[in-house]
Amino acid sequence: MTSPILDLAGLTLEVNHLARGVRFYSQVLGLEAVHHDARRGVAEFSVNAHQTLTLWEPISRQRNDERLARLGARGASHLHYAWQVPEDSLERCQEILSEHGLPWQAINLGTDEQPDVGVYFFDPFGHGLELRAVNLQDERQPYFPPWTLHRPAHALPVVGLREAALAFFDFEAMLERLPRAYGFALAKTQQDRNFAQFTLAREPERDGNGTPQRWLYCWDPQVGLADMLGGDHALLRLYADVDAVERLVQAAGLEHGRDDLSLVVRDPEGHVFEFMPQTQQLPGWIGK
Ligand SMILES: [Fe+2]
């Protein structure tokens, strides 16, 4: 089956101190805050023209986003996720992290002949971040290719969001449900652990060697590489053929809602997926 899912549009992280989060993501990642509402506990950053990173600070008796509140959406806790950076920038990225006083760890995920290095570090809230170099000329392009943007010299030269890793207690049920109930394209499982990788695109693809594709990883609640955890109660936004996803979600009987902007679905494990059409332009959409 061709997947109705086109690309990764955004991630929302739960943070316990919004101002600290805005400072970290502005200074270390060089992101531009396009929406900042301390009263609601919300800050949204544009990553590039098509992807966003959002921070939600939970506040008693308040909703971070009225539209998503009915489905119990929260920002993710301890989410492992990855950024795309240009080829040949990883050494400079390591220097930048050290200049900010952030410990990091580099792991070669490729081979000796064809290295594919992930650089791992943590934000102040326990989210596990990774930097992966992408070949901007690679023929395996996502629906919205990464954008090279000007970032301040002291900030990481991120060009896109690459992946998110979510925890699922019932791994086998997840493996059956995600393709059937949403249409996610399964790319890979592993023999030695409960680990599945989905390509956020029409067709499953092979990962590795600088691909600029986007990915969803799903694990049982294990500690992965570099002590990274899959996120709990994550909120992911995806570009998709929304009508096609809605048909699957309805057939699966999952709790969902739809308005002019998007289809929002609550997964039985507490994650919330928001599907929006690729014609919905960011960041004009943000904060509406
Ligand atoms: Fe990763």
Automatic annotation (TrEMBL):
Record's protein name: Putative ring-cleavage extradiol dioxygenase
Record has Oxidoreductase as a keyword: yes
InterPro entries given in the database record: Glyas_Bleomycin-R_OHBP_Dase, Glyas_Fos-R_dOase_dom, GlyoxalaseI/FosfomycinResist, VOC_core
Organism: Deinococcus peraridilitoris (strain DSM 19664 / LMG 22246 / CIP 109416 / KR-200)
Molecular-function GO terms, alphabetical: dioxygenase activity
Domain VOC: 7-134
Keyword Ubl conjugation in record: no
Superkingdom of origin organism: Bacteria
Lineage per the UniProt record: Bacteria, Thermotogati, Deinococcota, Deinococci, Deinococcales
PROSITE patterns, per the entry: VOC (PS51819)
Pfam families, sorted: Glyoxalase
Keywords, sorted A to Z: Dioxygenase, Oxidoreductase
